[in-house]
Amino acid sequence: MRTRRFNAIRRADEVFEPIDAALLPLGFTRTENVYHRHADHDVFPGVEAVTFGFAYGFRTCWMHTTVKIPALIELLAEVRPFAYDKTLAWRVPDHASHVACMLRLSEMAGTADEPLPEGLHWRDDGRLQRSRGVSAAVLADTLAALARRFALPALRERLTLRRLAAAADAPGYGQSGIAGAWPLAAKLALGDLEGAARAFRAHPYSLGSDRLRFMTAKAWLQGCGLALDDVVWNAAAAEAADPWEARAWLTGELVK
Fold first, then answer.
1. What is the pTM of this model?
2. Parallel, antiparallel, or unpaired for β 46-55 and 120-122?
3. How does strand 60-68 pair with strand 120-122?
4. What is the pLDDT along the chain (256 residues), one digit of tens a residue?
5. Domain residue spans in the chain?
6. What 8-state DSSP symbol labels residue 173?
7. What is the crossing angle of helices 181-189 and 193-202, to 10°?
8. Strand 128-130 relative to strand 60-68, pairing
C-alpha cells in the first residue's frame, strides 16, 4: 500500500513490521491489517482479532478488538439460517462475518489518559492523529504498545462469553437491534434459561423485528425450554427496538 500524500508514510510494512514483532509471537496471524488467532481460554473456542486502520497517509489511525464465538453462530443459525451462516464461523473477522463484539480503542478503559509521544494525539472520535513529523517507527511502536496494554487484556477479561451474556442486563439492551441476539445466545449457551427468558422479554426483537420473525424466534426459544407465553409482538415496540444506527455487533456501551 503506497500513497503520494505529502510527507506520508510510504510503505505499510514500516508500520506493520513492529506490530508483527509484538503480536505474531503471541499466536496471531496477520491477514492484511487484521491480526487474528484461535483462542481456547473461554467456555467455548473463539476467534480473537486486533484490527488496525489507517487513512490519509497514516495521519489518522485507529484500532479495534473483536471476538467471534462460532458456537453462538451455530446456535443462532438454528433459528435464522440465512442471517447466521455457519460457513463464516471461523473466517477471519470482518464486519460481515458475525463478529459478536467490537471494542474501539476509545471504549477501552484508560486509553484517554495514556501518554502519547510528541506529535500523536487523541481525536474527539477516539482515533489517533499523527503529525507529519512522527516517523513510522514511533507510530508503530505506539500502536504495538496500545495493543499490548489495552487490546490483549480486553480479549482475556472483557470479550468473554459471560461478559457477552451480561450485556442483556445492561441499560440500553432493549434498543440494541440485532446485536441483542448475541447476549441472548450467550445465556442459552451457558444454560441460563431464566436469564435467556429475561433477555427475550427485555428485547423480543433481537432475532427480527417483524411479526413473522418474532413468532419464529419465540417458538424456537420455547422449544429450548423458555417460558414465554406472556411475550407478544407489538409494532411500535418492534420499531423502537431496532434503531437505524444499530450495528450487528455489541459495542463497549453494553459489554462492560
1. 0.91
2. unpaired
3. unpaired
4. 444 455 567 778 889 999 999 999 999 999 999 999 999 999 999 999 999 999 888 889 999 999 999 999 999 999 999 999 999 999 988 877 899 999 998 898 788 788 899 999 988 888 999 998 899 999 999 999 999 999 999 999 999 999 999 999 999 999 999 999 999 999 999 999 999 999 999 999 999 999 999 999 999 999 999 999 999 999 999 888 877 778 899 999 999 9
5. 13-157, 161-240
6. G
7. 170
8. antiparallel
